[in-house]
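[09:14] KT: can someone run the structure on this one? pasting the chain below
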Amino acid sequence: MKRRNFIQNTSIATMGLITGTPVLNAMTSYKDAIIGHGTHKYKIDLNWGALNANYYPVNDCHEMVQDSKGRILLLTNNTKNNVIIYDKKGNLIETWGTDYPGAHGLTLKNENGTDMLYIADNVRNEVIKTTIDGKVAQIFSYPKESGKYPSKNQYIPTETAVADNGDVYIADGYGEQYIMHYNAQGKLLNTFGGKGDADHQFYNAHGICIDNRDAANPTLLITARQQNKLKRFTMDGKYINSIDLPGAFICRPVIAGNHIYLATIWSGDGDEGSGFVSILDENNTLISAPGGSAPSYENGKLNKMHQAIKIFHHPHDVCVDDDENLYVAQWNSGKTYPIKLSRV
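[09:31] RB: done, structure tokens below
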């Protein structure tokens, strides 16, 4: 499923920030507030990373990662500066990138001591592997050899995961919902998933990551966003089980320590302008939902989640730094810069 089509255009959203919408109210009412639940609570910094938009503009802030130097990298689909690099205090270090109009997924993998980036571009219909400073190293093009796509435009990749052996997994989250499995040289090894209601299929296979918490048995975690599920697969594409997150329209899973972090772009029934962050523990139990309702289980089942306070506006990704602080990038939020949540 492709993105929702909102009537509100960018100029109206930007005007809302100036004239006093709930977004502005959030920025004033919740300044320095503490959000979250249990062991995972955070202080809000709404000014982190704010830049002069005339020189360093953003459209959608899609994803963020931390590199081996401790820097925070933001991916935006503004071709004036697709990648904006900050220090952890939100100070600008550098920018690069003018060739990624559909910049959507940003995955970092340290390969033999060198940080490499994988950019999923859903306008170019491909994934581009680059060095940390933007030099193109490899391109994973439209997978015609899979036999699943009559035309390039049906393939709309949203996210990438890279295994320790160099294998690359690409989620076609806005296209036909297949997962492509390549070796490091770019040879297609396997295709699985696809659009549908079966356990091994997806509606909006938006995000993918490798769960290495059990080092001896790594697995794939793949979001089925429209189904409010996180699905687990073997590394060769066999379905294992699902984690139900009712009311949470989740983007990509991010593993940090023993926890899973998920930006939740819409809450409840997909309410426009909503969203929060979901945090699962080592047992895949929801333990905190910054900006959302308190986790509540009955008979082992999670009750439906919803946005509790209007701080976030379509959270699209969460980056966890080495101090366990969170950085939340947002889609269709009036071209706002990310929000930082400092662990308390």
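[09:33] KT: thanks! The first strand starts at residue 34 and ends at 37.
[09:34] RB: yep, looked fine to me
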